[in-house]
Amino acid sequence: MSQLDSKHSEKEITICSNSDTETIPLTRWGKFLNSFKQAELEEYTTNGQLNDLEKAIAATAKSPLRSELKNRHLQMIAIGGAIGTGLFVGSGNALASGGPGALLIGWGIIGVMIYCTVQVMGELAVCFPVNGGFNVYTTRFVDTSLGFAMGWNYALLWLVSVPIELVAAAITIQYWNDTINGAVWVAIFFTLISLINLFGVRGYGEAEFVFSIVKVIAVVGFVILGVVIACGGGPHGGYIGAKYWHNPGAFSNGFKGVCSIFVSAAFSFSGTELVGLAAAETENPRKTLPKAAKQVFWRITLFYIVSLTVVGCIVPYNDPRLGTSSDASASPFVIAITNAGIGGLPTVMNIVILISVLSVGNSSVYASSRTLTSLACQGFAPRQLAYIDKAGRPIISIAVNLIFGLLSFLAAYKNQGTIFDWMYALCGLSTIFTWGSICLAHLRFRYAMKVQGRNAHDELTFTAYGGIYSSVFGLFVNGLVLVVQFYVALWPIGGTPNAYDFFETYLSAAVVIVCYVGHKLYSRNWKLYIRGKDVDLDTGRSETDLDLIKQQVAEEKEWLSAQPCELRNMSILERLPVGLLEMGHDRVWLINSSELQHGPVLVESHVSEVRDKFQRRIHGCVSATFGDVVDSGDVNPVELQIRTVVEHHLPVEVPVLHHQLLVRRDVVQFDSGRSIDLTGENRLRDQTVGCRSERQRGDLLARDGEVVMGVGVRDD
């Protein structure tokens, strides 16, 4: 009696017996349903020897989250991901409170702090691209209780942002139509954000790519238009220049006005840290994250400092429309265009503001779901939230976020203002605590390396500009913001001390303190920090050989420098058709490349752009890495070395490639250097050229009559 074994994958169901093998492809609906099944998790053995911290580190080091964010996604998220209502609308209230001079001081100081914070976060994320990103660093480098508090602080920040942004989007729509109930628009935008996040991290990345392009174009366009208006080029004419810096003046409300600016500036930069959170879902973080971190400087300079300088020149801080509401009508960008008498453009700016609101709502679901999943993996949240499906989606955490987003329908409630004021209060200082914890974690990380006798410059592929001084400056500025906000909360501008307003302003600080003290009491761990010699500097670390990487980078530069100029400027996808191979970490492995220019090839690369472009033409290719196939335990692999020599004529010499291909023991390999015609009735019987046995059945991986890679199954 034959033994029957059934194996289910995302693309097909394979039924194997002693005599034959039958593959039943899943339907589209079947693939969709199958994608919601839980992904296989890498098991680790505790043997009762791991404490809670070590378990948390081990659980977040390996994650089934998919690395599908490409370089272009991360670059646009870094450049325009955080541009939103904080800049377009919130800057109006800040201008009214402090004046154009205070506006530049506040945004300038916070901008430098953000640049330093993103640099140190990039160093940690490149070294430790773990599930949860910077939310895990506080736990493993500083203290578990502080990590618990900071994790929940960040999760709550984005949880409450979902309903807030949905309501803001509905309010923005009222610029064109205020007769339709806002709940209708809330439902539409809620559905849109839900669908985007059901497409996984790739859906989030593509949506943010488009949103960011629109926002970047809008800001650049406004800067150009603002300069024209300041020079008297608007329909109303008249040179403005820096007139409003003299009358009504550069500062409003003196020193207290400057102090009031910092929180508004910090709010406008919220989301900058998402680059670090996405490290675990980014292809080749060693290359993409440093590039994204460097882009922050240009975003701060152009999209914030330059645009706000222009705003301060063409909108006086005593304009009665500033700070009167939280919708687009109070935006200094819209006010400037309206004052210039330019028709139609206010509508365009409102569309941009609407897109910005939806972008923040989309990012809110992404950030909060990944943070909740990370908290569950660390044992800081219900373990059900750690569920990640086969498509790499933390589907239960996403569902929790969307359920929380239903609070947006409270917009129809008559007392909704009070509820949303307290939601805003939760967001107030949350990012300040988050950025401060990143800088503190970096300081402890560098200290642990020093104590353990390890050199950062010898071990790290990317180090923060300024090193620990960036962390010290970032920590200092974040502490300064907390102090000045405490001062403004106690003695508000134009008002008297009010306990209600004070606690509303400092609500997020209360949440952090309660979480920290509560976890200390629950865990009975009274240590304030993890000693440097006890810090784990290896688990979850990206597997890189620094000397090898440096050698490969040098070889790549030397090799490319010898090529013609037009070839040096090609991207990796452009080099492939002419036989040029990317060297270094993104090395491309070509199998059966005898017809490289015309036929399909099998590509194994760290770059998903390459894999997606070529593997979509290949029927039945396994997308998982060879290491994942081995670790899954579903196959019994043997090592089969394939040596491929590119024999056809190319513009340049292509080196011989080697690779270890892991296959099932009951599967044998065809000659990878042959091209076999699969058309005709005898495909299963006669096309066995290069097989090890004449009894092998030609179960070939191919499409459209072209062999990509031949695989046969033994009949006996």
UniProtKB/TrEMBL annotation:
The lineage of its organism: Eukaryota, Fungi, Dikarya, Ascomycota, Saccharomycotina. It comes from Wickerhamomyces pijperi. It is found in: Cell membrane. The chain crosses the membrane at residues 76-96, 102-130, 151-176, 182-201, 213-235, 255-275, 296-317, 337-360, 395-413, 419-443, 464-490, 502-522. It is a multi-pass membrane protein. PANTHER family: AMINO ACID PERMEASE, GENERAL AMINO-ACID PERMEASE GAP1. Keywords: Amino-acid transport, Cell membrane, Membrane, Transmembrane, Transmembrane helix, Transport. InterPro entries: AA-permease/SLC12A_dom (IPR004841), Amino_acid_permease_CS (IPR004840), Amino_acid_permease_fungi (IPR004762), APC_YAT (IPR050524). GO terms for molecular function: amino acid transmembrane transporter activity. This is Amino acid permease/ SLC12A domain-containing protein. Belongs to the amino acid-polyamine-organocation (APC) superfamily. YAT (TC 2.A.3.10) family. Gene3D superfamilies: Amino acid/polyamine transporter I. GO terms for cellular component: plasma membrane. Residues 73-528 form the Amino acid permease/ SLC12A domain. Its main location: membrane.
